[in-house]
Design goal:
Order of helices and strands: EEHEEE
Structural class: mainly beta
Distance between the termini: 31 Å
Number of helices: 1
CATH superfamily: Beta-grasp domain
CATH architecture: Roll
CATH class: Alpha Beta
CATH topology: Ubiquitin-like (UB roll)
Oligomer: single chain
């Protein structure tokens, strides 16, 4: 299990590697805006604590990070979305 913490609300939830970012956020009660749901519009972008930006509509939780136990994601809400 991987603990995912969404900032700025400090909401944490357990997730399995390979789960969709959007489904994990929904389960945690965190709204991540979406637009195209294909990764090109950028509405669903979050920044991880390590500085990496990901498109949550096309990304999964730590699918390529086998040693990962905790991920912190900064959710920014653009008022246009």
């Amino acid at each position: 299990m991987i603990r995912v913490t969404f900032l700025p609300d400090h909401v944490s939830v357990e997730a399995e590697a390979g789960e969709s970012w959007l489904s994990v956020a929904e389960r945690a009660g965190v709204e991540i805006p979406t637009g195209c749901r294909m990764g090109s519009c950028g509405a669903c972008t979050v920044e991880l604590a390590n500085g990496e930006e990901i498109r949550t509509c096309i990304s999964t939780i730590a699918g390529d990070r086998k040693d990962c136990t905790h991920i912190t994601a900064y959710v920014f809400r653009d008022p246009t979305w």
